Amino acid sequence: MTTGKINVSVENIFPLIKKFLYSDHEIFLRELVSNATDATLKLKHLTSIGEANVEYGNPVIEVKIDKEGKKLHITDQGIGMTAEEVDKYINEVAFSGAEEFLEKYKDSAKDSGIIGHFGLGFYSAFMVAEKVEIITKSYKEEPAVHWTCDGSPEFTLEPSDKTARGTEIILHIAEDSTEFLEEGRIRELLTKYNKFMPVPIKFGTRKETLPKPEDAPEDYKAEEIEVDNIINNPNPAWTKQPSDLTDEDYKAFYHELYPMQFEEPLFNIHLNVDYPFNLTGILYFPKLSADLQVQKDKIQLYQNQVFVTDNVEGIVPEFLTMLRGVIDSPDIPLNVSRSYLQADGNVKKISNYITRKVADKLKSLFNENREDFQKKWDDIKIVLEYGMLSEPKFYEKAGAFTLYPTTDGKYYTLEELKEALKDKQTDKDGKLVVLYASNKEEQHSYIADAKEKEYEVLLLDSPIVSHLIQKLEADNENLTFARVDADSLDKLINKDEEQISKLNDEEKEKLKTQLEEIVPKQTYTVQLEAMDSSATPFRITQPEFMRRMKEMSQSGGGGMFGMGNMPEMYNLVVNTNSELAGQILGTEDAAQRSALVKQALDLAKLSQNLLKGEELTAFVKRSFELIK
Predict the structure, then answer these.
(1) Distance between CA 571 and CA 558 in Å, rounded?
(2) What are the tens digits of pLDDT across the range 578-607?
(3) Are 464 and 484 in contact (CB under 8 A)?
(4) Stretch(es) of the chain classified as CATH 3.30.565.10
(5) Strand partners, 27
(6) For residue 9, with 0-12 CB atoms within 10 Å meaning exposed, 13-18 middle and 19 or more buried, which class applies?
(7) Which of residues 434 and 124 earns the better pLDDT score?
(8) What tens digit of pLDDT does each residue of 229-274 get?
(9) Is residue 480 packed enough to be buried (19+ CB in 10 Å), middle (13-18) or exposed (0-12)?
(10) Sign of CA dihedral 249, 250, 251, 254
(11) Closest CA to 596 of 539, 532, 541, 515
(12) Considering only the top CATH level, what class is 403-497?
């Protein structure tokens, strides 16, 4: 037996490891299982190139709890270590065996899936263990060795009677970490971090019913056998070629990733690139509501099938963080705990690639089956609209498949929309005016008036629509958007067609004065307009610019001078050719006139969903009195 001191640059490295090196103690299991996977894949590689003259077989990594002995065992059937290698890789702390291995075999090992970080990864064991043992036998013809360390820089190294190739790590769990002796906790961690590791991981056993033989008698009793409980799927869908997967395979994998998600994904995008970086993965579009407060952090990041994090900020463009799925790349730089990304040039390239790939997929879905794409539009539009605003590269491509639905259920691309509207909705200055509604029910009467004039009205109801139309207007000359309730239609699409007013200038002035005495000045600006006599007598509109700036301020960005906090301001548009205008003008009794104006104003407010609380109660009471 030999004893010695671990060669470390900091005398008290173990307290340091326990306290600072890893942000989360639970990742010790991920590190140790990763090392076991490393050792197994190294052996696979060496046997495949004829450098290890042993049978690779069907190796399994086993995780076993000894609750009584307060021990946790992690055993592999991999490459193993000689006494010299234990001294080098375990006792020389910051020396990474995997890095040296990759350097030595860098050409042939390119695709062997080595995870790396043997050195410090192993020492994460001391976060939860008061003593750690390694019993290991190399694939080389050398005796097995037994290394022990109690969390101080002293260790012992002695021969072992282990005959099977591979490594067993035994953690003597510390008093403050006994949660890691609980079967449920270990299963939870293996499922979280090692669910898709490339080597089968055994955790206990389970019972399996044997299939009934064809010639079984009627009283045949099903036979149960005990089999290894393999906790992971070593060949997840993203490691396969898209041509080898069906739609059902993709859906099954989605439910494997999200067992509690019962809705089917809308569609998926398979990522597969090996130049100028390595990246594989599958992204899914889930059903999304028109609400920016969706749950993010649903994309899982892996490095060679080892779970790293579900915070993919910086790798995936922000607008796509609303998607779900998996990204796996050995080229994403990670620190020692594999928990936090460090920015470098590759990350930006990866982000750009994902943006391009998503845009290309959406375009092909649109081209292949437009009808199906239109059906899914409401469920995906928030992601696409957000992408158009936040990613210039996506915006460039999005014009080919971004849709603008009408209140009648028709769908146009922007170019189709321009073509369809140009004859009817171009104003006297040559500007194409695109009318839109944000709520089909609340703005129903305004939509109905527009349809009567044979105008198309879009239904744009996402919370970021104000930002989007601002961008579209800036990028498309002679195109303007106006919400259908922003003004009278004749003003929204000004064709320079003068309507004759029944009232002369003096009567109009008198009517305006009468109205302004009754209508609250702080909220409404009275506008008199000559319209068709059958048009609505009183109509409330909200100026497009003011409303849009306010919305942009409330939804973040683009709001000017704190407009989000400004009080609501409206126009009260009064049709001077309506019977009601003449009636108000002809009513001498001030009280009667006031009641008439208030009733008409309340009706206009009601059509804009602005009549609430005390005002609504008073309106209902007044209405009943009028019909007595």
Answers:
(1) 24
(2) 889 888 888 888 888 988 898 898 988 888
(3) no
(4) 2-205
(5) none
(6) exposed
(7) 434
(8) 999 999 999 999 999 999 999 999 999 998 888 888 998 999 988 8
(9) middle
(10) positive
(11) 515
(12) alpha beta
CATH topology of domain 237-376: Ribosomal Protein S5; domain 2 (3.30.230)
- The answer for 314, left when phi > 0, alpha when psi is -120 to 50, beta otherwise, is left
Q: Is the bond preceding 213 in cis, omega lying within 30 degrees of 0? A: no
Calculate helix-pair angle for 579-586, 505-518, nearest 10 degrees: 80
Write down the mean pLDDT value for the chain. Answer: 84
Nearest-10 Cα torsion for 485, 486, 490, 496: -160
Cα–Cα separations (whole angstroms), residue 140 to 212, 466, 522, 616: 45, 69, 89, 88
Cβ atoms < 10 Å from Cβ of 500: 7
pLDDT band at 9 (very low <50, low <70, confident <90, very high): very low
Q: Encode pLDDT of 72-111 as tens digits.
A: 999 999 999 999 988 887 876 534 444 454 455 455 544 4
One-letter identity of residue 579: E
- Give the integer Cα–Cα distance in Å for 602 and 240: 64
Backbone φ and ψ of 295, nearest 5°: -80, 120
* CA dihedral (328, 331, 333, 338) positive or negative: positive
Q: What is the pLDDT of residues 360-383, one digit of tens each?
A: 999 999 999 999 999 999 888 988
Best CA proximity match to 531, nearest among 493, 480, 574, 472: 574
CATH number assigned to the domain covering 502-542+564-628: 1.20.120.790
Q: What is the pLDDT of residue 432?
A: 94
Whether omega before 567 lies within 30 degrees of 0, making that bond cis, reads no
Cβ 77 vs Cβ 40: under 8 Å: yes
Given CA atoms 170, 174, 179, 182 in this order, what sign does their dihedral have? positive
* Overall average pLDDT of the 547-575 stretch: 68
As a whole number of angstroms, the distance between CA 162 and CA 138 comes to 10
> What CATH number belongs to 2-205?
3.30.565.10
Q: What pLDDT sits at residue 556?
A: 60
Taking the CB of residue 409, how many other CB atoms lie within 10 A of it? 8
Question: What residue has token string 């957000």?
Answer: 386
What is residue 405's three-state secondary structure? strand
Pairing mode, strands 166-173 and 71-76: antiparallel
**Tokens of residue 448, six digits:** 């109905």
Reduced to 3 states, what is the DSSP secondary structure of residue 54?
A: coil
Residue with tokens 């260790």: 155
**What mean pLDDT comes out for the span 320-326?**
89
What is the distance in angstroms between the CA of the first residue and the CA of the last residue of the chain? 108
In the chain, which segments carry CATH 3.40.50.11260? 403-497
| Rg, Å, the chain Cα set | 35
> Is 210 buried (19+), middle (13-18) or exposed (0-12) by CB count in 10 A?
exposed
Distance between CA atoms of residues 549 and 560, nearest Å: 7
CA–CA gap between residue 602 and residue 538 (Å, rounded): 9
- Angle made by CA atoms 77, 83, 89, in degrees to the nearest 5: 80
Residue 346, token pair as written in the block = 């590759």
Question: How far is it, in rounded angstroms, from Cα 458 to Cα 375?
Answer: 16
Residue 245 has a CB neighbour count (10 Å cut-off) of 17
Angle between helices 27-48 and 183-193 (to 10 degrees): 60
The closest alpha carbon to 78, from 101, 56, 102, 100, belongs to 56
Cβ-proximal residues to 220 (8 Å cutoff; 6+ apart), any chain? 212, 213
C-alpha of 68 from chain center:
44
